[in-house]
Predict the 3D structure of the following.
Amino acid sequence: MSCATPAARGRLRYTLLVAALAAVLVCAAVAGLTLGSVRIPASQVLETLTGAAGPGPYRTIVLDVRLPRVLLGAVVGAGLAVIGTVLQALVRNQLADPFVLGVSSGASVGAVGAIVLGAGAGIATTVTVPLAAFTGALGSLVLVYGFARGGGALTTGRLLLAGVAVSYILSALTSLLMVTSARADHLKEILHWTLGGLGSARWDMLALPTAVLAVGTAVLVTLARPLDLLLVGEEGATVLGLDTGRFRAAVFVLASLLTGVLVAFSGAIGFVGLMVPHAARMAVGAGHRRLLPVAALGGAAFLVLADLAARTVAAPQDIPVGVLTALTGGPFFLWMLRRRPYGTTAGAAA
């Protein structure tokens, strides 16, 4: 008969889950390095990563093409999952995510606007474009939240309708920027933001999103308790000492910063922040101290695998990974809608 306490057994299960997700992520990364239009033996990949392999085409493919893409996919997937988890807590609705709420569309408008205005070269690529994407993400989030709360209670229906409406407007604005651009070469760059993809990943693109993700996730983990308090409702959180207005505003800004930086390098990849937090919540519960790391690992593994499928299912054609996640996430979103009443408040739907 085991003498372990329930708490000890819970910690063991959580540790095993985290270890399993980390193993899945490593396996997905190895598959991403070996598979593609050119299949590279796993032993050759290992020799290349350890420096045992000499110069050759395999070394170039692994180190200069596939490895930056896999790493960027892991960073973006983890970030989108973390953002989705936090947004769902802030609006107390499991249907929220950066794409559904129009945040990704706002970030895309900012990034595309910076490109069209000529801020797409040199240091501007790693500073100005992410800054513009952050501004667009924050602006769209403020619009959606303001429209959803204006004139009544914050309901699931109002939140989704506001997100869809703002997303359509911003998508139209992106199309307008594309049509009116004076340079034809802007078309390919703009399509990158609207469809979402990792094919342009380079080593010099990894530092900023990785640093922002690491710092942002660490900050959010320290905010796990107030995020948990939001789950009890506005009045309950206030009674327990949380200034919900200031806290929401601060975390909205942080979520917009994360979204803007990620979208600036990957484009608008949808539904990762919807599906992964839901699965993570089913596995470990709603407590954010445990939920956020699991969501990050799950999101990283999911997007690496999704990108692998996107570049192998129709090889040598490279399908934008945002198309594949939309094909996967759309049905999941409809299933989530069927599980909860359309007109309930956001608090009741949490």
In short: The chain has one domain: 67-339. The longest helix spans residues 57-90.
